[in-house]
Amino acid sequence: MISFLPLGGADEIGANCYYLNINGNGIILDCGMHPRKTGFESLPDYNLIENFTVDHVLISHAHQDHLSSLPFLVKRHPYIHITTTPQTRAISELTLHNSVSILKKEIGEDENFEVYSHDEVDLLIKTIDYKAYNEKFDLTGYLHNDQSKVQCTFYDAGHILGSASILLENQEKKIFYTGDINLTNQTLISGGNIPKTKVDTLILETTYGATDSNLLNSWEDESLRLAKEMNTIFTNGGSVLIPVFALGKIQEMLATIWQQIQKGRIAPVDIYTGGIGRKISRIYDYNRYVVNMIDPEFELSNIPVKDINEVEDTNEFFKQPCIVLASSGMMIPGTASFNLARTWLNRKNTAIFTVGYMDPETPGYIITNAKRGDKIRMTGFSEANEVKCEIRNFRFSAHAKREDLISIVKKLKPEKVILVHGESEAIDWMGAEILKLFPVKRVHAAKPGKEIVF
Question: How many Å apart are CA 132 and CA 136, to the nearest integer?
Answer without folding.
Answer: 9
